[in-house]
Amino acid sequence: MIRRISTKFLLAVLAAVVLPFLGFALFVDHEMAGRLSKDVVLYSLKGLAADLALRVDRDIEEFNTNTALLAADPGSYMALDEALREEAGELEGEKPEDRVMMRGTQADQFDNWVLSKRDYDLFLLVAADGRFVASNTLDRVGRPLAPEVRTALATQNYAHEVWFEAAKTGQRFAVDQHRSDLLPPHAPDDPASAENYHIGFASPVYWPRDADHPEMSERFMGVLYTLVNWSRMQDEVESPVLKSYFQGLVGPDEFPSAYGWIWKSDADTILAHRDTSLYGESVSRSARIRLPQMVEAARASDWGLYPEYEFFGRRKNAAFKHTKAREDGGFGWIVGVGIDNDDIFTGVRELRALLFKATLVVLLVAVVWTMVIARRTTAPILALREHALRVGAGDLDGRVAVSTRDELGELAGALNTMTQELKENRERLVRAEKDAAWREMARQVAHDIKNPLTPIQISIDVAKRARDERSPEFDAIFERTVDIVQRQVAHLREIASDFHALTGARKPVRERVDLAELLAQVLELNRAYAGELGVELELLSIPAVVLGDAALLRRVLMNLVSNALEAMPNGGRLRAEIASAGGELELSVRDWGSGLPEEVRSRLFEPYFTTRSKGTGLGLAIAKRVVEDHGGRIELVAAEPGPGTIARVCLPRAPSA
Predict the structure, then answer these.
(1) d(CA 645, CA 638)
(2) Gap between the Cα atoms of 639 and 635, Å rounded
């Protein structure tokens, strides 16, 4: 016994001292890691993905807007008008330098844009019939375009280009990432370089409204087409912001693995990635990638987290966000931001190792110290245990010896005081419960007896006054008085019988009773009353024999059938049924009345509770006692489908004779 209590004491101290350390270590290992990966890192990834999508959308909007602004610039439509007039022979008398003045000026403006913005590789102004009009002559670093490139641009007809046909209808048009054949590759030695890819933007050029020349107002003049180098998008996905944001997860001398990417609107084709060799690869079908679950996630939602995945041997988490769709001025790309799981859990693993070591040290110290003090505290604890067991068994006279002045001694004294108070309180409670029960019983008996005594007293007083006054109606009054007294005495006898039955003074006399026959008799006794109410009686039964008191069971059945009939004052149907339910017989009486609320059904088995204006309120309480004395159970449930109520009685089946 001492060893067992000591062990419990040891475990209790260990639980109080060591488990918090161990729990905290596990918390850091699981919960804190979960917070870093889910509540912090994953939400940060979602935020970074949204930010990257916003930057990409702003870039696209900037390129679209710049193209539209240049298309609306007077230099553009005037250069186109100059080319149109030259073709019509209207400039034959002009000097050679004046004949190309507007086109040269616009080419200079294009060069300025290329050099200042550093994102554009080509500005191409095309006439309404698809002929070349003007373009930039310098590249982004200020070098002149090769003569063969300028010749190819000037001699090509663009009337059948998709962007030209779209812009000709008056709409802006954007060309998704592609390798343009209008310019040679910037990095011929590196075919996968972002420098070799472009996105294009086309905007129609119109002659503006002019009150002085209404014949030329809003006339389609041509198309301005711009090529933006894809390196701008590649720079966005390799932005230092993505790495610096997660610098706290790794050491100061290390670099986080976070990076971004861009997928085509089909959510399955890579357009931009840290590894440019993946350009054009299918995410779901490529042998190097094969991540169809990421494609499904990106297609299923506009913004969210990818399921955790493995890429090139590393477990990763990532988030995605869709950019603006084409109808909103974008390309419908999907941008993503991901990070290696190793970066997420680096700090957690270090903290976990430190906490586990600290927990081990605390565990060893706690075990040694607990074993020393456990033996010294076992004896008084055992004494308290024995005393508590005696009190729990009902012995309130015993007392535990107080041998120390420490907390255990104080506890022993307090336990003795509590035991004495518990004994006194129990005695007072028993007396109070007895007094309350007797008072309630006396109150109810007085109330139930007082009701029939009142009409008896009144009737006798009337008869006495009629006799004293020698009333000629004395005989009739006397007969009515006798009738009233007899009926009220019968009521008093019924009340006395109900109280007697409620006390359970009469124990059931067990014999084999045919429950089906008993139920048929009860229904037959109530058939005339049912006929007056317009209630149809229905009996469905199987052979049903129980061991019980026939008189008591008949009273239960009479009560249930009477209640069902009274629930249908305007007629209806009453169905009584006996069915087999395993080793029991289930007897049910269903009415088609208005039904009872749940709160009423739950209280109908309480003594004196009734929903009728007459009766003692003891019928169902007595029925419940009788059924339980027979080893059964009774309940009231709502009929389904309604309306109505079902009274259900389950009784054990009698064994075979």
Answers:
(1) 5
(2) 12
572-581 and 535-540 strand pairing:
parallel
Structural tokens at position 263: 């997928």
Q: Which CATH number fits domain 92-230: 3.30.200.20, 3.30.450.20, 1.10.460.10, 3.40.50.2000?
A: 3.30.450.20
Helices and strands (H, E) in the chain, number of each type:
19, 18
10-residue stretch averages of pLDDT, the chain, 657 residues long: 58 67 64 60 88 94 94 90 81 64 89 92 94 92 92 93 93 93 88 90 88 66 95 89 71 75 94 92 92 94 92 90 93 93 69 70 75 68 70 70 68 76 74 60 57 69 81 80 73 61 60 89 86 89 86 86 88 91 88 81 67 61 85 87 87 82
Q: How far apart are CA 519 and CA 499, in angstroms?
A: 25
Q: How far apart are CA 619 and CA 229, in angstroms?
A: 94
| DSSP, res 315 | E
Residue 142 and residue 148 in contact, taking contact as beta carbons nearer than 8 Å? no
Does residue 163 sit in helix, strand or coil? helix
Residues 195, 6: Cα–Cα separation, whole Å: 77
Cβ partners under 8 Å of residue 3, min gap 6:
none
Buried b (16+ CB within 10 A) or exposed e, 413-425: eebbeebeeeeee
Q: Are strands 219-229 and 198-207 parallel, antiparallel or unpaired?
A: antiparallel
Helix (H, G, I), strand (E, B) or coil at 290: coil
Q: Which long-range contacts (CB under 8 A, 24 or more apart) does 150-158 make?
A: 152/182, 153/122, 153/124, 153/182, 156/132, 156/182, 157/130, 157/131, 157/132, 158/124, 158/126, 158/130, 158/131, 158/132, 158/223, 158/225
SS3 category, 643: coil
CB 79 within 8 A of CB 103: yes
pLDDT of residue 349: 64
pLDDT at 93: 62
Q: Determine the Cα–Cα distance for residues 463 and 512; give it in Å rounded to an integer.
A: 52
Place domain 511-652 in its CATH homologous superfamily.
Answer: Histidine kinase-like ATPase, C-terminal domain (3.30.565.10)
Predicted TM-score (pTM) of this structure: 0.53
Structure tokens at 456: 């008896």
CATH number for region 237-346: 3.30.450.20
The CB density around residue 278, as the number of other CB atoms within 10 Å, is 17
Residues present in the chain in total: 657
Is the domain defined by 421-503 classed in CATH 1.10.287? yes
* Residue limits of CATH 3.30.450.20 in the chain: 92-230, 237-346
